Amino acid sequence: MALGYVRPARPEDAGEIARIQLATWRVAYRRILPRHVLDNLDEEYLARRWSAAVQEPPSGAHRVLVAVEQAEQSYLVGFAASGPPDAESLAPNEPAEALGSGVVAVTDLLVEPRWGRRGHGSRLLAASVDLWRSDGFDRAVAWAFDADAATRKFLTGAGWEPDGAARALDVDDMLVNQLRLHVAVPAEGAAEGDAAAG
Hints:
Layout: E1 4-8, H1 14-28, H2 35-39, H3 43-55, E2 63-70, E3 74-83, E4 103-111, H4 120-134, E5 139-145, H5 149-157, E6 161-171, E7 174-184, H6 193-196
Parallel strand pairs: 4-5
Antiparallel strand pairs: 1-2, 2-3, 3-4, 5-7, 6-7
Helix pairs in contact: 1-3
């Protein structure tokens, strides 16, 4: 396993987070999303959004974490973002209160493909679980593309399960199916592998 660690994102990380997001999407989603959509994503726009997410989060429970690989020098290799659920966390026609209290939504959990299978995803998830627990969350949800077998395998290997919700995103007149997964956040001292393995 690689030497690495997870830390809170800093403002100066925004550009690298955006680069990792684009690089990962263009590899992982190349058979899921239209190529021209991936080609036309604006890295500077993404960097501005990540800068705002890090510097001006909507609440103290909104978190952006980064994974760092340690070698001769350190490299940012992945990131995770989560926070209280919003409209993007809901299924179509699902009422705002459907998820209930105590739920945290994962909006992003990405490791750049060239740094995959080195434990970074598991470290990001484990660090997120620790923060969710300290913030009082008892359940987490995340959307995954139906066709994204790698993400679904990673999450289900960590104890996540589909919660029955599904939706189809309209991506430039192409419908892309997603399903929502969920997991209980283990109590302090419980078997953390239930929510943070993989």
